[in-house]
Amino acid sequence: PSRWRIPAAILILCGGAWLMKGALDPWAASRAQRAALERLSVGAVEDARRLCAEAMLLAPEDTQAHLTSAEIELEAARHASLAQIYDREGRHREELVHTRAALDTYSRLEHPDPYNLAGFHNGLAGVLAQLGEHDEALAHANAALAGFDEVLGPDHPRTAIGHATLGLVYDYHGEYERALVEHERAAAILE
């Protein structure tokens, strides 16, 4: 998925909680949303995340089994937003938890969009590579590249990003020759 600006991520994170769950008081979510944005504007990312988490906790657990496609997409977006916040803070283990949750949630769709699915795989590959989980990172990077190639074709800039991510995975694992090949493929597409 593309990287969103943090205010948009907070809006999705908090606002999506009450959009998804009919039982949640929309005024409480709105207050949490405003408070989160205020805290974020002064650099208090931890407070913003806590406020959003509180809003999400107000939703009953049993609604998870009955989510519509749009609600599943919102839930995946909230996890992706949290992953981005953790990434910016350098908290990669927490980022991994939410990146996995975003992919797992999005995969629950009856007909997930192949482009978005490839994007979730691509993001997960990058996090796993940073954490030294080479085999799993490689599997997700290859899934992302195959998805981008299938949907967009081999010469699309997003497919180039898939090659660059695969190169990153090889680089983190010390396979520099293979990393160079993938980065050169990416560069050739972007020329």
Uncertain spans: 1-26, 58-63
The description of the largest β-sheet is: none
Shape: globular
| Mean pLDDT across all amino acids | 79
Quickly give the structural class.
mainly alpha
Number of helices: 9
The helical percent reads over 70%
The N- to C-terminal Cα distance equals 23 Å
SSE arrangement, N to C: HHHHHHHHH
Radius of gyration using CA atoms only: 18 Å
Question: What fraction of the residues are assigned to beta strands by DSSP?
Answer: under 5%
**Number of DSSP E strands:** 0
Quick description:
The chain has about 190 residues and is mostly helical. It has helices at about 5-20, 25-40, 45-55, 70-90, 90-105, 115-130, 135-150, 155-170, 175-190.
Structure, explained:
With 191 residues, the chain is an all-alpha fold. It contains nine helices and no strands. The model is unreliable at 1-26 and 58-63 (pLDDT under 50).
Protein topology:
Blueprint (H helix, E strand, L loop, with lengths): L5 H15 L5 H16 L3 H13 L11 H20 L3 H16 L6 H17 L3 H19 L4 H16 L3 H15 L1
Question: What are the key terms here?
Answer:
single chain, mainly alpha, 77% helix, disordered N terminus
